[in-house]
Amino acid sequence: MLPVMKVALIANEKASGVSALIDHVRVALKKLGAQILIPSDQLGFPASVTDDIFDSADVVIALGGDGTIIHTAKHAARFKKPVLGINCGNLGFMAGLEMDELSHLSDLMEGRYSIERRMMLDVKVCSPKGKEICLCALNEAVISRGSLSRMVEFELFNEREHILTYRADGIIVATPTGSTAYSLSAGGPIIDPAVSCLLLTPICAHSLHARSYIFGEDSQIYLRTKNADTHEVFLTVDGEEGVQITVDDTIKIKRSEIFANLIIIKQTPFYQVLNRKLISRR
Q: Does 124 lie in the same domain as 56?
């Protein structure tokens, strides 16, 4: 007799459509013989999602939009647990299934799926006094100005040399997964998620030659701001964690040693998904 699959069901009930869908997902999983693990709903998403539920689960299902799936996948990555996203949002580029495709949950229970590893970034803010703030990004890290309409001067380095100085509203450092998110809106290229690299895209740079840069997967890049003492500058990771940056801080970004693991049930090629989710929205 096969062991019972333990499925952690993570739902962002504040997202549109999730409250109506969650009971349908529970019923479908129970009929298929799954043991369902659900966080306490007293705190709400994401505060209710704790380490123990990932540690106990075999697989994780995230109900919500891309933000919910990204947050869940990053947390699950620390426990090497795969995540199936069910899209309840507008775009759902990270999702493996849509709301009307719950019949495919039988494929999950019977092991008819693959797992796609997605590169993540280690993002570290280092102060001259030795204090460090460590964050992790699945999509991107964004260093940008605050509320005042003044550009920030950014210095970009790698391990060997000073690369250039930008005057811009901000800088995006993205993974290939994040290349279809904020970086794309800022004019950056689309990168196949099977490629391992770091993508840097300026936001509204005051230059005729400012372009995106692509760095090798083993590169480590460093960013500093030259005028953060007179301007508010913030680091935001995947749109959910924010840190104010000072002129003395150095931001170090490199490929993470851990990967997000996304469950792929429908073997739809990346560029077909891209066309359906993005290009058709023109």
A: no
